Amino acid sequence: MYRALATANAFVDAGWKVTVLTATREVFEFQTGTDIELERKVDPRLRIVRAPFSWIRGEPDLAKWSRARIASNLLWSFMRAKSDRMAFPEPVYGGWKKALLDETDRIHQDDPVDLVIGTANPNVDFMPGWHLYKKAGIPYVMDYRDTWHLNVYTDTFVGSRLSRSARLEEKLLRSAAEVWFVNAPIRDWHAKTYPAGSSRFQVVANAFDPDFAQAFAGMSKPERSATEGLVFGYLGTIYGPMPLRESLEGWRIARSRSELLRNSRFEIHGRLGHYSEPDPAILALLKEYAGDGVTYEGPVSKTAVADKYKGFDALMLILGKSKYVTSGKVFEYAASGLPIASLHHPETASTSILSGHQDWFPVPDLLPESIAETILKTAQRAAVMTSGDYARNQAWADHLSRDKQLQPRIGHLTELVAEANNG
Questions:
Q1: Does the structure show a pLDDT above 90 at 102?
Q2: CA distances from 58 to 87, 159, 266, 377 (A)
């Protein structure tokens, strides 16, 4: 969400007229969760067009259920899933293709489009660009916030290389004006798997927003009483094969060995799972460690994230093992200037992002004992950090800002479109 919002705003700032094609508000409010406060960051010059989307999962309004669904929700769901995949080879979202293309044609008819950027997943988001490319030769950009056929945790190809979706992805990649990936390992995997068009594959890292970094200028240590310990924080979504239990167990061990940490707490902010309701299994795991100073604080509006960081003494970076996983929060962690305990396998892609950060403490492995040692080192450093230390780390992170990532691409695409129009 943050990447898509920042991209649209950046193109507007560069002088482009931008139309955003998205789903209806109800989809976000009732299904995926939303951040109402973040709407203040939407540039008023953006034109927002909403294509209706009917989600198979958890429709809360029974008045919208058909008679067939009421008679047998199981059979209805099975037939709906098959129908969605026929429209586009992607579960859940495939059925959105028609609504997207109908709105795409209306947008192009009202005010001819020069460039389309599709950001995925869902991968059906790539269809408007492909549609206008085939129909009118309009260049399109594929912005991969995730991967389509790469399982980033097992390093394997998802499905068959001869499947309908794999063949479609190959066509899309071959014809795109540019393809953006969040890090070099993912780009390189796609270049090897789909060599046609790979010269146009680019790395556009998730990065952090410049105004986010500005909020930390002159940051000082949080004021605490003599009996209070430190506050460790985690901000982000918890999902997938993350070493959460190992991290919590390491935290418990570290607290048993340090008076400073016995008076400290570990706050977790963000979503538990990908939907608006917290994942019950993750929630139950966090409750197991409630007696160890671990608290779950729920989601945080993007507009309040900087203030949350200012209340922490140190950060916990918990990620699943993968040479392809960078995550978006690693950039904000770096921008904050706070010391970071990296509780993830060294092979994870964020390791290369944080290398050079002077107050970064990575674990050698994911054994709770090793995690405990890393947390202890981070706590010792956090206890003596100064405003100068924070400022030094923030200056180091400047190269990770979003404008450093987006501006070269916007400049190139502006030239590309200008040349096409002149031709």
A1: yes
A2: 21, 27, 33, 45
